[in-house]
Amino acid sequence: MGQQQGAYFVPVKSYWPIVAAVVMFLTVFGAAHWLNAEPGETGFGKTVITVGFIGILLMFFGWFRSVINESLAGKYDAQVDRSFRMGMMWFIFSEVMFFGAFFGALFYTRMFSVPWLGGEGHGVLTHQFLWGDYAAAWGAGGGNGPGNIGGNFQTVAPWGLPLLNTLILLTSSVTVTIAHHALKAGHRGKVLVFLGLTVLLGAVFVYAQAHEYMEAYHELNLTLHSGVYGSTFFMLTGFHGLHVTLGTIMLAIIWLRVLAGHFSRDHHFGFEAVAWYWHFVDVVWLGLFMFVYIL
Amino acid sequence: MQVATTKVQDMTSGGIRIKALGTRAWAAAVGALWAGSAWVNPAWANPQPGQLNMTKGVTEWSHEPYFLNNVALGVCTVIGVLVFGAMFVAMFRFRKSRGAVAEKWSHNTMLEVVWTTIPVIILIVLAWMSTGGLVSFADTTGSQMTVKVTGYQWKWRYDYVNYQGKAIDGVGFVSKLDEQSNDTRQLGSELDPDAVKVGDENTYLLNVDKPLVVPVDTKIRFVITAGDVIHSWWVPALGWKIDAIPGMVNAAWTNIKVPGTYRGQCAELCGQDHGFMPIVVKALPKAEFAQWLAQQEAAGKAPPATPATPASPTPAPASTAAAPASASTTAAAAATTPGKQG
Amino acid sequence: MAHAATHDHHDAHHGAPSNFFTRWFMSTNHKDIGTLYLIFSLTAFFIGGSFAMVIRAELFKPGMQLVQPYFFNEMTTMHALVMIFGAIMPAFVGLGNWMIPLMIGAPDMALPRMNNLSFWILPFAFVLLLSTLFLPGGAPAGGWTMYPPLSLQSGSLAYAVFAIHLMGISSIMGAINIIATILNMRAPGMDLLKMPVFVWSWLITAFLLIAVMPVLAGAVTMLLTDKYFGTSFFNAAGGGDPVLYQHIFWFFGHPEVYIMILPAFGIISEIVPTFSRKPIFGYKAMVFAIAAIAFLSFIVWAHHMFAVGLPLGAEIFFMYATMLISVPTGIKVFNWVSTMWGGSLTFETPMLFAIAFIILFTIGGFSGLMLALVPADFQYHDTYFVVAHFHYVLVTGAAFAIMAATYYWLPKWTGQMYSEFWGKVHFWCSVIFVNVLFFPQHFLGLAGMPRRIPDYNVAFADFNMISSIGGFLFGASQLIFAGVVIHCAFFSKKKAADRVWEGARGLEWTVPSPAPHHTFELPPVIHDDELAHGHVED
Ligand code: HEA
Ligand code: HEA
Ligand code: CUA
Ligand SMILES: [Cu+2]
Q1: What is the pTM of this model?
Q2: Which residues of chain B have pLDDT under 50?
Q3: Are B200 and B266 in the same domain?
């Protein structure tokens, strides 16, 4: 790895970090208060979350604005650039591990706990003494456990909307790459078109997913309460959906920044960071499509 | 070394005995370390004041952990003496104040290979020994009796499932902390824990209203689960503990060799009264047990006994904020205790 | 170019800014942020320690004397959470912040603003966590491991979960910063294999942090949704399994305990050579051993779950993998001893703590190895034997290393010498009383005393009383520590030399004491013989 050559850019004092800490605190404090409120009680929780959340948006705006200004002022040399890259890479790695926890839960319940409850292998006694009537199955007719928690449900067919969503995300990965190449070649118009297309695809994905959720809730009776099938289904696709939403917003901001002419052919880390993030979201989806929908 | 036994018994009374620790406890300790060559005196199976080492237990299997514990302790002591010994030698020989001048070397391949290999060999031996014990423990087949154990906040339920190939019907009861301990343990009760005794033995927090009664010389299979949160069923004299998990069943076995009363406690944090859900196993000679069982069956036929755990599984965690495991649960729990049986 | 930038804001240049608020709340300076971390950590140590004092007071003799059982469980839980996430981890981050840039010749951390955020999240997270003690629902009381379904009964679960999310975010950002700093900011000539072992240990620890903190976040998120949103991850009736939580938790939890010991290994590997006046024995082996421990830490998690009823094959696998960790750890211990062998030893306070570390950590490691033997663990599990084990590795391991590091680098931070006399008093009190505190707990566990209980049979009375007395005295001894640090920082008249210790090597000793607000603004020219490991050939 590279080592230091000249003086490294150390930013001056900034109030954004402490602002960030405060607004993050407000958000979670509000959320905790809200979750713990007695039913019917009108707490201040919601207000506090809202304030905190708006604060987070403003904070991001302000913090990134100062970063962008520094970048435009040419204060970032190649070494700073590398620090940013490493930061982004390791951040994405941490996200991978976060999803890993939920994938782990999915694999464990599918491969161990549900079969055990049904009396397979290690679960003979569990089945015999507690859940004699339960026939283990993943998906409809068993995926919500021996208590039939949440009632009977249907699963989402993989070859409809989910397939479409797969294609959408794959295409969007291609368009963002084309945009990247265009940026490196200095074709701003082409960048705007393809990046715009990516944003659009991201939005369509989110829309389709929302549609799928509606259908699941209203027609399939597949809900967050549908036992562990529902739990893993909605937590995995839900967190993924959240990341797509975030990614789409970030792409949109990058689009605006391209429009504003912030990026040069060889100096566009912001663009790349978001593109990496987008690819990460894409890869997670492939895992989801495989293990949540198809198998 | 059983001579020490009686001596130790009487030291369980009296206030806090730092003095006692000086004399009698050490005697007890030595006794504990050398405890019996065959099966130990049952009294030794339960915690003793000043006890320094693990109990050897009273079952066919319970010497496994005891043996491993001693071997591992021995190995570690030897390594410790060598390593720390070398270090102390260095600390005396190579002090600057004694004029030691630092040498320059920082590397010795031979040595490094040696102290990588030797631990590996030691570990292989230890692993080999533990694996044997583990495999025998995992084998619950061929049992002559099955008892179902269910943990609740904060009591145990025992249901006798079968004995010597015959299904048992309607023998089951709840076992919880005895009255006297319970009164004594209340904050500010002013009662003396030392006064909670059965005969000579202090049973503070280690006694129940109705013990689990089992026969000796019988391979007993336990199937263990829980009704609310995770508990863990542990009687040191049997040599193992295993978690009681709501909605899941674990199995374990024992074969007690010495009649006696063996005490243990819940060993998984299960809420406010986790410290107050002891386990007592009373092992009877086979004939006496058969008698006891017959009595229970007869009594059980009369009033419809509480059915073995209803199919109601883990209470689905309430979506509303659950009260912290609190007094209300205790009250509800007490209410479900079935009537007296023998 | 960067110079021009800093000159615009002249206060940020050489001296520290004079305005209190700007200096401490808006800092981008690794030394100031390091100081903040260290102060925070010491505060948390005292808070967590007071909780421990409540525990030890209630356990002083049989019978309930002071607190209700539920409150006792709150104390146990909060004690552990505050000590782990508030005292030990931030202390290491603080030391890393202060020392890593100095040790590798960097002007600051790679991402200085984010660095400040990493720190400032922490006080808020702890306010959130500690506030539960005063809320109607009470503090979390299900143990620091928060096993469901018990933890789902807690009225304040959401607060605890969000506090953990915040701490996780803080740790992840801190770790990212450290990795980027080490990989990207080394002065020319500071090759990876010439870095101080402390820097290496942090590089690997940072990797562990990034890998497992998100997993903890996922685990507690599932708790949250199980309680408040009706999911069934840990509910067998819904097809889940309470044990699933334990797998995910310990996938985090085991690497977590090494997160709390690897930087300690690094510290000891700095101090022992300094006071032996001899280069560390087997530098490469040391680095390799840390990496090996880190790797193995990912495949041993179920050794905390030997009693949950795992399939036989799993128990065997996790037992073997766990035992294997003794090998690289042993290599480290042997290498420290060999470093001392043939040296020219002096015994200033940092060295005393380092020596105590080596012995007492090893004792903790031995009991760890005993715990790894499954049949024996059936007896040890969830008893005070385990409590004794982990306090030996955590208190006489991690905490002693942090104290050693404090004495070692304090003169560099403050420019003044601490009182060697009081340092030694602190050391001897600590090392004696900590053993009085924790050694008898081995016996209690072997005799059959479960952990996490507020009251016990009279058979356990003697050793509990001894342990409590040791606990109070050990706690009181820490007041000396605070006194020595405060005295050194504000009142000591004795100026420290730049190279504080005769045998000290490494870049941090080439800058003045106290280390100026900004160091290495231009990368230093490094001569190999200035480095502790510049000429290491093996
Ligand atoms: C800093 C923290 C730390 C460290 C370093 C360790 C190190 C080790 N731990 Fe420990 N452990 C904890 C913190 C730590 N642990 C905590 C907090 C818990 C309890 C969590 C809870 O339940 O709340 C716990 C619990 C725990 C358990 C579960 C016990 C139970 O609940 O039943 C086990 C079981 O295997 C275990 C094993 C080990 C082993 C094998 C090591 C090894 O890494 C030790 C290796 C070191 C040595 C062995 C000594 C030096 C080596 C030599 C001199 C070489 C030669 C030696 C031999 C060949 C023997 N630990
Ligand atoms: C990370 C590190 C860490 C550290 C440093 C400590 C430090 C200490 N720990 Fe703890 N402990 C844990 C981690 C740690 N612990 C964990 C993970 C658990 C498991 C929790 C669980 O089961 O969920 C645990 C559990 C635990 C228990 C078992 C509780 C139970 O099972 O119910 C006990 C009991 O003795 C205990 C005691 C102590 C004591 C006496 C200290 C002492 O070293 C503390 C000394 C410090 C001070 C006392 C503070 C400084 C001084 C003052 C504030 C001055 C005032 C004091 C006096 C004048 C006396 N700890
Ligand atoms: Cu039941 Cu602890
Ligand atoms: Cu572990």
Answers
A1: 0.92
A2: 1-39, 305, 307-342
A3: yes
